[in-house]
Amino acid sequence: MHPIARRTFGLLALGASGLFGLLALLLLAMLVVYPTEYVRRTTLWLESDVDDRFRFPAREVAARAGARELPADPQTARVRAAFAAARPGVDLDAWMARQHTMGLVALQHGRVLFEGYYNGHRRDERATSFSAGKSVLSTLVVAAADDGLLDLDEPVTKRLPELRGRDPRFERFTLRHLLGMRTGIRYRETGLPSGDDAKTYYWPDLRALALEHTRIASEPGPDWLYSNYHPLLVGLALERATGMPVAKYLERRLWQPAGMAAGASWSLDSEASGFEKMESGVNARTLDFARLGQLMLDRGVATDGQRVLSERSVQWLTHPDGAARLDHRLPGQYYQLFWWGRRDLQQGGHDFYAHGKYGQFIYVSPPNGVVIARNGRLYGVPAAEWIELFGRMASELGRAAPPAARPPPIAPAASRPAS
Question: Which phi-psi region, left, alpha or beta, contains residue 41 (left: φ > 0; alpha: ψ -120 to 50)?
Answer without folding.
Answer: alpha
